[in-house]
Amino acid sequence: MLYVPGSNDFKLQIGSHLTTRPTSNFGTTFTAAAGSYGSYVALLAGAAVTEDCYGILINVNSVATASAVRNMLVTIGRDPSGGTSYTDWLTDLNVGNASTYINGGGSWYYFPMYIRAGTSLAVKGNGSSATTGLANINIFGQPRNPAAIRVATKFASFGISGTGGTTITVGSTSDGAWTSLGTAPRSLWWWQMGCNANDTSLANQAYHLDLAAGDASNKKILIENMLVTGRTTEEFNNAPLTVGCTANVASGRTIYARAQSSTIADTGFAVSAYGCG
Predict the structure, then answer these.
(1) Which candidate, 155, 94, 156, places its Cα nearest to that of 126?
(2) Fold of 10-148
């Protein structure tokens, strides 16, 4: 069984902010340079990772600024030796215009990735402008039924362009057209999506995002109707997506995305995708 946050499949949770009262400024501050990655900022020391873990929940918030484009990618780095010499691990996660924590939570990702005991974890950002964000993570261990836990060790990003994703044509009365995000470099089975918009005046609305794999005429749905909400304060939010993300995709298959909005789509709406296996 795959982990769903809030269930009892894992008996151990190690978090970067488990004892911190949630506020609008929830997480560790990191700084993104304009068009390049800033320095890594520690989130979890290796000494805190007392056992092997098999999943990671990532939240990034407080990226958005009213009346401004705030595209941003973040990468989670790791040092299996417990030090601070991080290597890129979960790369180019799209957190564009992520809201403050109390205005909807911001951007969330969950990956069933293996994390060895003693591994240090950190975050860095790459923004469309020099700005900051806040990040917090939780990792999960002690599975109640180890034989039933499916865990990944490889990761791939799709549709990354500049400091955001690939621009798509969003439908309003029906789904927009499928747009290619790239080709699977290896067999993958767990999927997530992210988004951003090149717009200084977002609307109060909802988006439904779909992800698929296949070719021009035949596609297998990987994720269907993932909810993203936008606010006129130029903020995006998405819930941690953990159900309906499991789908085997063979190496070489093309990954596609499409979307539908509740009203006229924000300008330059773009999506990205992530797979692991």
Answers:
(1) 94
(2) Jelly Rolls (2.60.120)
